[in-house]
Amino acid sequence: xxxxYVSYAIIVIMSIVLHEIAHGWVAYKCGDDTAYxxxxxxxxxxxxIDPFMTILxxxxxxxxHIPAFGGAKPVPVNPSxxxxxxxxxxxxxLAGVAVNLAIxxxxxxxxxxxxxxxxxxxxAPGTIALKLGILTNIVLFLxxxxxxxxxxxxxxxxxxxxxxxxxxxxxxxxxGLIIVFVVVMWVPAFWxxxxxxxxxxxxxxxxxxxxLW
Length: 213
Known about the structure:
Blueprint: H1 2-29, H2 34-37, H3 51-63, H4 85-116, H5 125-145, H6 152-158, H7 163-170, H8 173-186, H9 188-206
Helix pairs in contact: 1-4, 1-5, 4-5, 4-6, 5-9
């Protein structure tokens, strides 16, 4: 059991760290070196830990018996330094979720190989840890695509809005995490939709050999 918790914790921490690094790396490629100069493109988890999002929130989720999710300290991005601001904002906003989807896919293929070669059994601790890691990355992918500020989906959506509407949209940033927390914790319909989306991704995109949800 300890092996499962430790392995799962490592997967979750690295998944959210890579999520943030992806934002910073794409921003760097688009012309903004803010994250690079602040050392936020590092794989060192300590540089990315946020006390609430990285530690407390996943623990709360586990105690509430819902898939653990959270986040790292947001990578600073200065869109005004992008060579193409609109394209840069869109690419940066999608970079993190793309990484989570890729991690889920790679973990699933690793689990598939482990099961085919009998390295893991269906009820082995390694299998359970990988299944949890796959599920968590799918949840991170879907949750971050939700168009509620300041999630990535909202960052992508706002690039299609008129400038005057963006200003109003951005006002929700300060309350966004509270809204997300309330929706996740107390809106059953949200997890009903997530269940359908997770099942679709697991079956048709991730192609996991075992049931995830």
